[in-house]
């Protein structure tokens, strides 16, 4: 008996049940990573960053630790906007 090996385009495709879920996970991950990069590049403490974003420090900790399941796409867009960022989405064939 041979072991079946599935290949996926991304980790999100591997863990999501549907292509739609994978796309949402990918978008949230990208946005979360960009927000974390802004916070670290400015050298803000979690408390400073949370205040600038209009969220609590524990929530900022979740964001910086990559706890993706705790953030909706809407919440991440709002956080980015609070940091003076404009979110730009692109569509491309799958």
Structure notes:
This protein is mainly α. The protein has a single domain (17-82), classed as lambda repressor-like DNA-binding domains (434 Repressor (Amino-terminal Domain), Orthogonal Bundle), CATH 1.10.260. The protein has helices at residues 11-15, 19-42, 46-53, 57-64, 73-82. It is globular, with a radius of gyration of 16 Å. The model has no long low-confidence stretch (mean pLDDT 86).
Features:
434 Repressor (Amino-terminal Domain), 94 residues, single chain, mainly alpha, 5 helices
- End-to-end Cα distance, whole Å, is 33 Å
| Separate helix tally | 5
Structural class: mainly alpha
**Measured on Cα atoms, how large is the radius of gyration?**
16 Å
- Name the CATH architecture: Orthogonal Bundle
As a percent range, the share of strand residues is under 5%
The averaged pLDDT comes out at 86
Q: Could you state the CATH homologous superfamily?
A: lambda repressor-like DNA-binding domains
Q: What's the β-strand tally?
A: 0
Share of helix, binned:
55-70%
Secondary structure layout plus pairing:
Blueprint: H1 11-15, H2 19-42, H3 46-53, H4 57-64, H5 73-82
Short description:
The chain has 94 residues and is mainly α. It is built from five helices and no strands. It has a single domain (17-82), classed as Orthogonal Bundle (434 Repressor (Amino-terminal Domain)).
